[in-house]
């Protein structure tokens, strides 16, 4: 696809449609768009749509518009506008000219509605919402016509102007399309085009007291902007006849095959992951998470904060592909993609996230030795850096066992291991508190075994990482698991409530080598043996570094 260096042999079905349009000699510049509603933060599924639309524009030397479908100010907020713009730009999708808004076309939409009325294709209806639903019929029974359906054109024009001028109470009247109340497609049974609503709008203020419905506004926005291929998800497939009806009857095209044309593709579903905006919003409102960008979520802002990269999301979308049928994908595939992206890029540093003290009894007091460490063994271009070594170190608690289990090759009394980038040390004992918990491990070192010295006298089976206690940078580490209980699924079938994982966040004290001071919030690393981490961009301060674990080092996921 668009983010790969070489063009793939096969093309997805949308590319085939576009290439057929071009092959038929239609003289057109391909223009796509991403049209979010500013009523929440975007999630990983939206990233698929962004990258698909932008990638198609790139592939065919066209344009990509970022346009907000801001036709429902009840749920919209400028915070969401700003977050969405940041997400699109972070993904690298370069949009054409300035950010666009459906509300900029409200006058065009109003004039298009007037044209429909003059053609006898729209009328003002005074049925209540419940009555409209009743009159609409069912999937197996046709609807029945509104008693207001056959008003004269002159009466409809006057009433619609009165709606615009604020002459009627909110909800008292709507403008409906006059199509077919017996249509087998329920979306074509005289859908609502406009409603009266005195709501302050983030972009137009109080200029309007009527607002268009999405199914009316969206095709007009596409037509006004010259969109050629209006790509949306499968739930809008049944709306396509209405999309074409609006564009044709409002005079923007003559046949369904002309531009703009709507094309539907399958949504991205992740197994055991909360993606729906309203569910995420509830988690935020209930305080289950600390905001729309909580790293346990899969909003784009949350993924960015957790440490995912645009390249990892692009790779993920490439693996998922573009299809016509819905399917679900394991979250493990997304984790595979970030590991694959960071493996050659991320500096590797030593950090201890469950610390216990190691004292080297025979190492000189107050001596600090600086030792070279390869920054990334798979990427020599990242070079080396120096790490301090001394008498007292921090090691992981799991790297010591007073009574070892079978095949345990780390520290236990009498056993010798290598300290990464340093020396062999042999455990000689430990100290305990009054409850019998080990508090300090003691060892001796062999000065002849320094890393890089060429020592070949003997071998050890275990290597452990460490941080020098005197120079360690104290930090907070956040270890994340899935927000939901994967064994139970996302929702309880009886209560409808989410099955939340009580262990989705574990916060620990960590010690990190001083090399970390050269980096800034947002930078990512591999903490040796502990996983990939990034410096949190929201809670990190000069006094306290906060690290988010992006992903562990290993996974059961296999790329076929």
Biggest sheet architecture: 7 strands, mixed
* Unreliable stretches covering 5 or more consecutive residues: 1-9
State the distance separating the first and last CA atoms: 18 Å
Strand residue percentage:
15-25%
Helix content bin = 10-25%
What is the number of helical segments per DSSP (H or I, 4+ residues)? 12
Radius of gyration: 31 Å
Number of strands: 27
Query: What is the multimeric organization of the chains shown?
Result: single chain
- Name the average pLDDT: 95
Physical arrangement of strands within the biggest beta sheet: 12-25-26-27-23-24-13
Tell me the structural class: alpha/beta
Shape: elongated
Task: Note the topology.
Blueprint: H1 13-23, E1 31-34, H2 44-59, E2 63-68, H3 78-90, E3 100-101, H4 106-118, E4 122-125, H5 129-136, H6 153-165, E5 174-177, E6 192-196, E7 210-212, H7 214-225, E8 229-233, H8 240-249, E9 261-265, E10 268-270, H9 277-285, H10 300-306, H11 310-320, E11 327-329, H12 331-342, E12 348-349, E13 351-352, E14 355-360, E15 369-374, E16 384-389, E17 392-396, E18 416-419, E19 424-432, E20 438-446, E21 463-464, E22 467-468, E23 473-480, E24 505-512, E25 524-527, E26 531-535, E27 545-551
Parallel strand pairs: 1-2, 2-3, 8-9, 10-11, 12-25, 14-20, 18-21, 23-27
Antiparallel strand pairs: 4-5, 5-6, 6-7, 13-24, 14-17, 15-16, 17-22, 18-19, 19-20, 23-24, 25-26, 26-27
Architecture overview:
This protein is α/β, with parallel strands linked by helices and 560 residues long. It is built from 12 helices and 27 strands. The chain has helices at 13-23, 44-59, 78-90, 106-118, 129-136, 153-165, 214-225, 240-249, 277-285, 300-306, 310-320, 331-342; strands spanning 31-34, 63-68, 100-101, 122-125, 174-177, 192-196, 210-212, 229-233, 261-265, 268-270, 327-329, 348-349, 351-352, 355-360, 369-374, 384-389, 392-396, 416-419, 424-432, 438-446, 463-464, 467-468, 473-480, 505-512, 524-527, 531-535, 545-551. The protein has a 7-stranded mixed beta sheet with strand order 12-25-26-27-23-24-13. Strand 19 and strand 20 (438-446) form a beta hairpin. Helix 11 (310-320) packs across helix 12. The protein is elongated.
């Amino acid at each position: 696809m668009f983010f790969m260096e070489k063009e793939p042999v096969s093309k997805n079905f949308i590319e085939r449609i576009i290439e057929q349009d071009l092959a038929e000699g239609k003289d057109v510049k391909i223009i796509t768009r991403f049209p979010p509603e500013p009523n929440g933060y975007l999630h990983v599924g939206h990233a698929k749509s962004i990258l698909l639309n932008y990638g198609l524009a790139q592939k065919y030397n066209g344009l990509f518009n970022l346009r907000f479908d801001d036709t429902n100010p009840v749920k919209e907020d400028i915070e969401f506008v700003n977050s969405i713009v940041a997400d699109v730009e972070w993904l690298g999708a370069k949009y054409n000219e300035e950010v666009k808004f459906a509300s900029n076309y409200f006058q065009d939409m109003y004039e298009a509605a007037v044209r429909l009325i003059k053609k006898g294709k729209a009328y003002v209806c005074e049925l209540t919402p419940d009555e409209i639903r009743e009159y609409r019929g069912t999937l197996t029974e046709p609807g029945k016509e509104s008693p207001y359906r056959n008003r004269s054109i002159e009466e409809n024009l006057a009433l619609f102007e009165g709606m615009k001028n604020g002459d009627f109470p909110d909800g008292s009247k709507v403008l409906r399309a006059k199509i077919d109340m017996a249509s087998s497609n329920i979306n074509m049974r005289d859908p609502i085009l406009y409603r009266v609503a005195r709501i302050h709008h983030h972009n137009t203020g109080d200029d309007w007291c009527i607002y268009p419905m999405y199914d009316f506004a969206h095709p007009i926005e596409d037509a006004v902007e010259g969109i050629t291929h209006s790509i949306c998800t499968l739930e809008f497939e049944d709306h396509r006849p209405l999309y074409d009806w609006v564009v044709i009857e409002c005079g923007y095209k003559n046949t369904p095959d002309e531009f703009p044309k709507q094309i539907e593709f399958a949504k991205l579903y992740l197994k055991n992951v909360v993606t729906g905006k309203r569910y995420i919003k509830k988690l935020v409102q209930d305080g289950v998470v600390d905001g729309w960008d909580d790293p346990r979520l899969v909003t784009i802002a949350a993924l960015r904060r957790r440490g995912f990269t645009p390249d990892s999301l692009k790779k993920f979308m490439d693996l998922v592909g573009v299809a016509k049928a819905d399917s679900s994908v394991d979250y493990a595939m997304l984790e595979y993609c970030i590991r694959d992206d960071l493996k050659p890029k991320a500096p590797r540093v030593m950090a201890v996230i469950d610390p216990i003290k190691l004292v080297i009894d025979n190492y000189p007091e107050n001596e600090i030795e600086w030792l070279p460490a390869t920054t990334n063994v798979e990427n020599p271009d990242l070079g080396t850096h120096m790490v301090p070594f001394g008498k007292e170190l921090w090691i992981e608690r799991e790297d010591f066992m007073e009574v070892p289990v079978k095949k345990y090759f780390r520290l236990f009394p009498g056993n010798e291991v290598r300290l990464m980038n340093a020396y062999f040390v042999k455990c000689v004992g430990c100290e305990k508190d009054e409850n019998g918990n080990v508090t300090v491990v003691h060892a001796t070192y062999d000065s002849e075994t320094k890393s890089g010295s060429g020592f070949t006298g003997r071998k050890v089976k275990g290597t452990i990482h460490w941080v020098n206690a005197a120079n360690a940078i104290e930090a907070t580490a956040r270890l994340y698991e899935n927000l939901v209980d994967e064994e139970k699924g996302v929702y309880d079938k009886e209560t409808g409530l989410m099955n939340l994982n009580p262990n989705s966040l574990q916060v620990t004290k960590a010690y990190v080598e001083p090399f970390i001071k050269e980096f800034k919030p947002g930078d990512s690393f591999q903490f040796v043996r502990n996983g990939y981490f990034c410096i949190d961009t929201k809670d990190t301060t000069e006094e306290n570094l906060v690290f988010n674990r992006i992903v562990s080092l290993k996974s059961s996921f296999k790329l076929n």
